[in-house]
Design goal:
two-stranded antiparallel sheet, mainly alpha, 2 strands, about 0% strand, about 60% helix, globular
Length: about 350
């Protein structure tokens, strides 16, 4: 006798297989296979290139592992970025339709590093093609209201010089923090770079900013200039209770996301929850300890929680070291950066090692 109780059949968007979680190069690749930058041919050098301080930072295992959660901590304290995600991001649109799943949220974060890697490590042609793609993607991302609670802030436009600059600077600054505060170098504990190398890093970052709309007069050329820039735009950093309110509907977009994710939960998404335990749990804890105190405050961290975070970084230093070892780094490089980035990083490390040897 056939039972009338049918098993629930999940849609393909809800089911998460191991292959879907891992993804193929298509998930990250934009406009062809990326080509690594070289130093011998100036036209092929790319944005940074072998021997640069930027590649010292970018290619470190700690940055490979912790880059994404650290970037989101700082970038999501910049109010125009939050407004753009709130109003225009595909995962927000899915949430409005009730179609957002936990995998969609993970996929959004998963693609972050791997899509940017060709600009950081690729030759000039690769970097330009990917940058132009991102510019086209962000053409419609603009709005009249950043925060309904503080209308005096005005509006935002993703492709404006201001927003483009801060998108690039928040990416690059967090990588420096991770390198300096979490990155073991041989048997040495994590430590700050000398001031001259920090200034050189910021000057190199300016070249990355130039891939996007920018105001040349505002691009910082030293750490001191970057600090002044943060002061100038201080009112655009921080979190408020009203920032999550969608101006057109009055809804809270965080609640919309949660409701949709809860509705579309499925046992197969345990694989996603396992990955998010690292990205949004353990790694975010360490990344929060790596960013500046001002960033932690802007993120809404209370003084009590900040003490816990900083204590955890000290007490768990052996674990932070372990997470940078080759097998674990390789796992997260493939999972979060994608197969093209695996090849780019391997090639870039060889070229960078040779360039540093020549410098010495």
């Amino acid at each position: 006798m056939t039972s009338n109780n049918h098993l629930r059949v999940a849609s393909p968007d809800v089911l998460v297989s191991r292959d879907r979680l891992l993804g193929t190069a298509k998930r990250w690749r934009r406009h062809g296979v990326p080509t690594v930058a070289t130093k011998e041919d100036p036209t092929d050098r790319g944005v940074f290139g072998p021997g640069s301080v930027a590649w010292d930072v970018l290619l470190h295992p700690a940055v490979i592992v912790f880059q994404s959660p650290a970037q989101f901590i700082l970038q999501l304290t910049y109010k125009p970025v939050v407004a753009g995600v709130r109003d225009w991001d595909p995962i927000s649109k899915k949430a409005h339709r009730g179609e957002l799943t936990l995998f969609d949220v993970f996929d959004r974060g998963q693609r972050n590093s791997g899509i940017h890697a060709p600009m950081w490590l690729g030759n000039r042609d690769t970097a330009t093609r990917v940058a132009q793609h991102l510019i086209r993607v962000h053409e419609k991302v603009e709005g009249d209201v950043i925060d309904v609670g503080t209308p005096e802030l005005g509006g935002y436009r993703a492709n404006s010089p201001r927003e483009s600059m801060w998108a690039a600077l928040t990416e690059m600054h967090t990588m420096l923090w991770v390198y300096e505060r979490l990155g073991f170098r041989g048997f040495w504990l994590p430590r700050r770079l000398p001031d001259d190398l920090r200034d050189r890093y910021i000057a190199e970052v300016g070249e990355y900013c130039r891939l996007f709309p920018h105001d040349e007069n505002e691009l910082p050329k030293s750490m001191a200039e970057l600090k002044e820039l943060y002061k100038k735009y201080d009112d655009l950093f921080g979190v408020t209770k009203t920032l999550a309110i969608i101006p057109s509907t009055g809804q809270n977009f965080h609640q919309l996301w949660k409701d949709s994710i809860d509705k579309n939960d499925h046992p197969s998404q345990k694989k996603v929850k396992f990955q998010l335990f690292f990205q949004e749990g353990l790694f975010k804890l360490f990344a929060m300890a790596a960013v500046s105190g001002k960033t932690r405050k802007n993120s809404g961290l209370t003084p009590r929680k900040e003490k816990v975070v900083l204590a955890a970084r000290v007490l768990l230093l052996p674990l932070i070291w372990l997470l940078q070892t080759r097998p674990i780094e390789s796992y997260f490089l493939r999972m979060m950066w994608g197969p093209d980035a695996v090849e780019l990083v391997a090639e870039a490390r060889k070229l960078h090692k040779a360039a540093k040897a020549k410098q010495r």
